[in-house]
Write a structure and sequence with these properties.
single chain; 118 residues; mainly beta; Barwin-like endoglucanases; eight-stranded mixed β-sheet; 8% helix; globular
Amino acid sequence: MMIEILKSKIHRVKVTEANLNYIGSITIDEDLMDAANLYENEKVQVVNINNGERLETYIIKGERGSGQIGMNGPAARKVAVDDIIIIMAYAIIDQRDARSFEPSLVFPDSATNKLINP
């Protein structure tokens, strides 16, 4: 049997921009993407700590080392700049592998969005 399990998580990162007039997605600093084992165009779930909104979108690579977290398109209505969010991605794996699977968890400095121990 296959199950869906947490693959990657960026915990408590600050939104640096919200661009309603973009076609959609979330822009993530490439350093954070690498640390969390996330890929450009990968589907992610975004949870807004400030207002409880939840949404799904896909990733666009942001400038490496910039701390950029940008909500684009309609999703920009569900966040405000400086909101704290959690970004999660899931994988479908065989249940036999689930007990030994280790997700990539990243806990950046939420003031700067930089990796604490890169």
